[in-house]
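Lecture notes, structural biology module. Today: joint structure prediction for complexes of two components.
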Amino acid sequence: MTRHLFRTPLVLVTALAPLLFFGCYTVVRHPQSMEVAARVDVSDQFSVDGTDHMRGSGACSDCHFESEWLGYFDHPLIYGFGGYATHERWYDYYDRPWWYDSYWDHDSGSGGTPGSPFPEGAASSWTRRPRVRGEAPPVVDQSVPPSTVTGSSGASSTTPAYTTPNTQPSSGAGNAKEDEPASSYDKKKRTPR
Amino acid sequence: MKRFLISAALIGSSAVTAWADGHPFTELEIPTPSLVGTHARPLGMGGAHIAVAEDASAMTWNPAGLAGVRRIEFSSSLAFDNDEIETTWFGSGASRSLDDLQVGGISFLYPIPTYRGSLVFGVSIDRIQNYNLAYERTGRDPDLSFFGSLDDTIATPGEVSDRHDREGKLNLVSAAVGWDVSPRLSLGATLSVLYGSIFDEQTFTTTDTDGIDPDLASSEVYYLLDSDVRGASGLLGLTYKASPSFRFGGVLGLPRAIELERFEQFRVVDRFDDGSESLDLETSIPPNEKITYPWWFGFGVAFGAKGLLVAGDIRYTDWREMKDEVAGTEFFLRPYYKETASMSLGAEYLLPSIPLRVRAGYRYEPVPFNLTYVPLAGELVLSDGRDPAEVDVELDSERDFFSLGAGYLFGSVLTVDLAWETGGFDRAHLFEPDLYNEKRTSSRLIGTASYRF
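The predicted structure, tokenised, for the full assembly:
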């Protein structure tokens, strides 16, 4: 039971080690405001709707526009394989992230931070937040010409662009989702859980 | 050499070497892992799941599929097995069947909340291999040369009976992770610890039904092996989403290394015409046996659109690379095994009006063992060459299975899937198929319930 049995795990760990450094596409922690600000080109900042949210060539737009920050969880390339996305109940079972609702219902109330979906001091993304019913998820309008998305790993994909918001998240000065665009990718049958 | 044959046969399925002194056949086959799995959805699709798995089954089919899990999942499976073996030996038939109901597996998956991409962890316990066996062959050997004379050149008949009962299981305790490295590409890895046990009893009886021998009425050789099995293995996988309708998957199975800690008992009972008996009993704790199964590769492709999912897998394993070692001595198995390419095809259809899905599949899984019954006139030759005395067994039909399955979604949180698979193979003595042939059929029914929080 010594080297014989542990030979295989050692081989496995060795094989896995390079993969751990293979790209940083998956994001589990949102950049904090100061990190974002440090990367933003001030000349590109402008206010969209009276909030402090920034758009342009800066760090926020790196993810929120060029990537699929919103549409990710609905993107037909990634989820709903085999036609499951078009059935409401199967969509809820397979495709809707368990933490999904909280994103759209998060109401900072006490004020948020530009570029951050949660206010400072809010619970981390590892904490399950209370789910609030009544909000439709964001959707992607496939009629809009696609944009190219590139992950840090170098892989890219063509995805539908976002259109104007069609969701009405709960109000709050710090609600970062409020000015995020949404779309209409095939959610006709869906209703909130 | 004798020890090797005994130990190999212990986890094999028929006679043991010690019987070779009195009987010409011995099986060396070491059971090899099967693709059957412990989840209903893959089984219902004939095992075509490398590019499809997006639930707890991904831990054993393709861990990269874990990256597609979006909800916390708890699942468990129940499995019912029925195995039947029919034999014909010296013109006489025998048949035995065995039923077994057991927990197939329990799994828990936890997707980490992400802003982009996916990171999912999972743990599971699966009974991946069943060593259970109920085997028997009986017949009248016209040339047994066991009774009546010590001179083997004088042919004398005798009734022979070969019975083999085995209970055993191999469990897999796994931890796995799957994550996205790009919108299209996901990777995954499973690390597994194996544990289980094998309780093996083999009885070989010769009876002087013709009353040839003046003293001896029958002779019974009994062999028992009680083994604890421990081991380790792993699986690496990737999934590539080429388009919303096409996916590809690839897996690399790491060598499965198992070690058998054994206790054995050997007993010979001679019964005489006057009613007396003689007993020869021997118990021992032999050195541990180490078996390493080879690397394997798998590739899968899946097409899905409008509720229809079609998938195909192919797996390659070079069983000749399997290793068996006892007390530092490695036994040469290469001549007895071959490389195999297994194939699975499956389809699933999602009904539009009710949350029900139905599926069907076909699995072709060649038997990797080249020969089954070896005459042991002398010791086996440990070399690349085949002992001229060995007798090949020809497969009349390769091992294949058909499967059906269905799954229903309750609410939007609980799925219950059922799958049934049946199949088998025939094989016979290469030169004298009437001397020995066997037909093995097995059926498996699996029910899986998965709750997503």
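Point to remember: Confidence is low (pLDDT under 50) at residues 1-27, 373-391 of chain B.
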